[in-house]
Amino acid sequence: MAMGKRVVHKGVGKTVELFGLRSRYLMWFCGGIFGVFMLFVALRMLNVPLGINAGLVAGGLVCLLRYVFLYNKKYGRYGQMKKNARSRSPRFLTSRKSFYQMLKVKENKSNV
C-alpha cells in the first residue's frame, strides 16, 4: 500500500487571519474587544443601570467592528504602513541647477 503525500505546516509564511481581519487589524480588534470589556466592567462597578451599560457596550462594539473592518478593506495588509510612509516622504524632488547646467558635460582632466 503506497502512502500519499502529506502536507505539513500549511500555514508557514502566511499571515494570521481571523474572519477576514489580517495582521495589524486583528490586533486592533483584540485590543478594542478588551477595551470594551473594561468599559463594561467599569460601568458595572459604578452601578450604571444594565440597560444603559449594555447600550453603551453594544454601541462601542458596533463602532469597533465597523471601523476595523473598514480599515482592513481599505488599506489591506501593509496599506496603513504605506500611508504613513507616504506622508513622511517629500512630494517633490527639486534641483536648483538650471536646465543648461544639467546638460553640461564635465570633462575629466587626468594626467596621461
Task: Give an overview in words.
The protein has 112 residues and is mainly α. The protein has one domain. The chain is 57% helix and 4% strand. It contains four helices and two strands. It has a two-stranded antiparallel sheet. β1 and β2 form a beta hairpin. α1 packs antiparallel against α2. The model has no long low-confidence stretch (mean pLDDT 81).
Q: TL;DR of this structure?
A:
This protein has four helices and two strands.
Q: Any key phrases for this structure?
A:
mainly alpha, 112 residues, 4 helices
What is the ordering of alpha helices and beta strands?
EEHHHH
What is the SS-derived class?
mainly alpha
Q: In terms of per-residue confidence, which ranges show pLDDT below 50 for 5 or more consecutive residues?
A: none
Strand content: under 5%
Output mean pLDDT: 81
Biggest beta sheet summary: 2 strands, antiparallel
In total, the number of strands is 2
Determine the number of helices (DSSP H or I, runs of at least 4 residues). 4
Q: Could you give the distance between the termini?
A: 80 Å
The spatial strand order of the largest sheet comes to 1-2
Number of domains: 1
DSSP helix fraction: 55-70%
Radius of gyration: 28 Å
Shape: elongated
Secondary-structure blueprint:
Layout: E1 17-18, E2 21-22, H1 23-45, H2 50-75, H3 79-88, H4 99-103
Antiparallel strand pairs: 1-2
Helix pairs in contact: 1-2
